[in-house]
Amino acid sequence: MKPYPEIDIIVPKFSEENGFYTTKQRSEMMSKIKSKGTKPELKLRKVLWKLGYRYRKNVKKLPGSPDIVFAKFKLAIFVDGEFWHGYNWEEKKLDIKTNRDFWIPKIERNMQRDRKNNRLLMEKGWHVLRFWEKEIKNDLLGCISKIVDNIQLVENKGIIS
User: Fold this and answer.
1) Tens digit of each residue's pLDDT (9 = 90 or more) over 107-128
2) Residue 10 and residue 67: Cα distance in Å, rounded?
3) Are 55 and 45 in contact (CB under 8 A)?
4) CATH code, domain carrying 106
5) Would 13 be classed as within a structural domain?
6) CA nearest 144: which of 94, 91, 77, 99?
7) Domain hosting residue 129, numbered range
């Protein structure tokens, strides 16, 4: 039995007409947040490269444009920021004090999109690994180990396409 598709969460446009506001300083800070090439992502890629693993970055042809892709092993890796992707969400959403009507649907939509992209990738036969930025910062070798284990699992099964 196929599950019913999730209805997309609607995120209101962030504008003063919709009752949302921000300071110039906050706006400037937010504009500097990167979606690609973050420090944890670079840290992970650097170690993988030194270990001799070759990959592609931000492959747009795959759902969600994974941060790191091992096409040969059908392995897609995402490095997720805690705020943007809802780490410990049920607790953290209580901490949002301003513009709640924007930020809560925004983060929940991101989480929904992550689930959808995971499902789409797995339906295409891909393995998906997601790491929180703090995981990479606090346990880089553990993250590398998970990636290498996945690659070796595919190699050992002889299912390289």
Assistant:
1) 999 999 999 999 999 999 999 9
2) 25
3) yes
4) 3.40.960.10
5) no
6) 77
7) 35-157
